[in-house]
UniProtKB/TrEMBL annotation:
Species lineage: Bacteria, Pseudomonadati, Pseudomonadota, Gammaproteobacteria, Oceanospirillales
InterPro entries linked: Glyco_trans_2-like (IPR001173), Nucleotide-diphossugar_trans (IPR029044)
Pfam name, any one: Glycos_transf_2
Keyword match Transferase: yes
Protein's UniProt name: Glycosyl transferase family 2
UniProt entry tagged with the keyword Membrane: no
Length: 329
């Protein structure tokens, strides 16, 4: 496979019920110019057996490059894939999600235009609970691409809008592989996507958006967003600290603003996690501490933040009260 243009990294951990569906959604639409790197991250169920079965039975099964490693977490699984990719573009897929049937066709349509080679191509997703007879159940459009259809743009307004919405899911776009030179997903951290993906956007000079859903994103009731822990608070604070430090060192004024915007949105995530864990009144002092930390760095940077974030920085107590009232409206 010397002419590979796209490497798809599939991270799989204990997904024996879903990994077959995920891999078939890829293999049933690609051609021989795509490699699929499957990282079995120490699964304790029959995930590896399902992967090997598809490798043996599918006509394109030998395009699967299977790597098994001790359980190390999704960041290390993706990093293991990044070390061996051959394609000039790279995409990510979680082992319980899948590609929609026109994913590959739409990407080729963009790349075959020929007048520009985007650094990043972003798109939307379908959020769903499960499949029944091949149909998505409890499905809704997930607009991870907030700017609609656009082609080879690096306009500051477009980038600012992307950063304001903070949909940093790795699977919601494909990337030039060279963007990952000297960076990787942070090992052992939750919110690893928020730590890395904004940096890739700031490295990009040409971004394209497809206003269509190309990925099926399975809502996992056991996921960290549904069951947050104190580690999640620690990890999101480390994201905030990282971007505060990056912003302080950055000389480019626009990049400095975007890094500060990530830190501000991180504070909003911290508030949301705290509310889920502790309610709306107990965590106010902790949330206030984070807000004060960010404000110390942000006071000399003119960064435009969305309404909910603006309210948080105006008053954490008022922000929590507003969130509490919204639960019942």
């Amino acid at each position: 496979m010397d002419n590979v243009w796209l490497s798809i990294i599939v991270a799989a951990y204990n997904v024996e019920k879903y990994i077959g569906e995920a891999l078939l959604s890829v293999l049933d639409q690609i051609d021989k110019r795509v490699e699929v790197i499957v990282i079995n991250d120490g699964s304790r169920d029959n995930t590896l057996g399902e992967i090997e079965s598809i490798y043996a039975s599918h006509p394109l099964g030998q395009q699967l490059h299977i790597i098994s490693q001790p359980n190390s977490g999704v960041s290390e699984a993706r990093n293991a894939g990044l070390k061996v990719i051959k394609g000039r573009y790279v995409a990510f897929l979680d082992g319980d999600d899948h590609l929609l049937p026109h994913y590959y066709e739409k990407l080729l349509e963009i790349l075959n235009r020929g007048d520009c080679e985007p650094d990043i191509i972003e798109f939307n997703a379908i959020r769903f609970s499960h499949l029944k007879n091949g149909n998505h159940q409890a499905a809704s459009l997930f607009k991870t691409n907030v700017c609609g259809n656009y082609y080879c743009n690096s306009d500051e307004d477009v980038v600012s809008k992307i950063f304001s919405h903070a949909y940093w899911f790795p699977w919601a776009r494909i990337y030039k592989s060279e963007l990952f030179e000297d960076v990787q997903f942070p090992p052992g951290k939750s919110y690893e996507d928020m730590m890395l993906i904004p940096q890739l956007y700031l490295r990009a000079t040409c971004i394209t958006g497809i206003d269509e859903a190309l990925v099926g994103y399975r809502v996992n009731p056991e996921g960290i967003t549904k069951n947050p822990s104190s580690k999640d608070l620690t990890d999101i604070e480390s994201v905030i600290d990282y971007y505060l430090e990056m912003s302080a060192r950055e000389n480019n004024s626009f990049n400095k603003k975007m890094m500060m915007l990530v830190a501000c949105q991180g504070a909003l995530f911290y508030k949301s996690i705290s509310n889920d864990m502790k309610g709306y009144f107990r965590p106010i002092s902790d949330i206030s501490r984070i807000v004060k930390k960010v404000n110390r760095h942000k006071k000399n940077i003119d960064v435009d933040v969305p309404f909910n974030t603006r309210m948080l920085f105006l008053s954490p107590a008022l922000s929590n009260l507003y969130s509490y009232i919204k639960k019942f409206t």
